[in-house]
């Protein structure tokens, strides 16, 4: 069903659309990202999910040779065929630093419930984000773990408890099989000439090779 079709159904039954937002650098997108997105959609019962590559992440340093259009194209390839996923260039078109508040504010509406997916590092640093208290008013925050580390687990629990006590908002955990992959590892593997076929979708691996990315 098209997004327009979802809107029509929502109007008929007077229900709000459940819309997910999954932003990130995606440099490159990998199997862990795809698994997290699919679990997010299923467990939060999303009508559709925006996957949004950043133009310039506020809290990360990107390689001087980074091309956001390549990251966008790889996301389009990785999520092609997954029903309900919309890969959006809204932050790339906007340019400048990609603040989550601006993106959520642009997507918000009375007919929608917004759900935002974060990674571990984002949960731990969320209270340093631009207008983070306003972000909490715009969406239901969720998070996913892609590593097995008891020390980090304790830090996450403590931080989530702090957010709940201070702001009355609970971060919901999305449960997935642990896939310990990082974009940094993939870039390193490519630069060393190692195989990445078990780390990224096949079409993404092909795109990286054909465009000689991360060499």
Helix/strand structural class: alpha/beta
Supply Rg. 17 Å
Strand content: 5-15%
The share of residues in helices is 40-55%
Low-pLDDT ranges: 1-14
Contiguous helical run count:
10
| Text of the CATH class | Alpha Beta
N→C terminal distance: 40 Å
The CATH architecture classification is 3-Layer(aba) Sandwich
Strand line-up in the sheet with most strands: 3-2-1-4-5-6
Number of domains: 1
CATH superfamily caption: HUPs
For the sheet with most strands, the description reads: 6 strands, parallel
Number of β-strand runs: 6
Give your account of this protein's structure.
It contains ten helices and six strands, in the order H-E-H-E-H-E-H-H-E-H-H-E-H-E-H-H. The chain has 215 residues and is an alpha/beta fold. It has one domain: Rossmann fold (3-Layer(aba) Sandwich). The protein has a six-stranded parallel beta sheet. Strand 2, helix 3 and strand 3 form a beta-alpha-beta unit. Helix 3 packs antiparallel against helix 10 and helix 5 runs parallel beside helix 7. The N terminus is likely disordered.
Task: Outline the fold blueprint.
Blueprint: H1 3-13, E1 17-24, H2 31-43, E2 48-53, H3 68-79, E3 85-87, H4 90-94, H5 100-107, E4 112-118, H6 120-124, H7 132-138, E5 140-144, H8 150-167, E6 172-174, H9 183-191, H10 202-210
Parallel strand pairs: 1-2, 1-4, 2-3, 4-5, 5-6
Helix pairs in contact: 3-10, 5-7
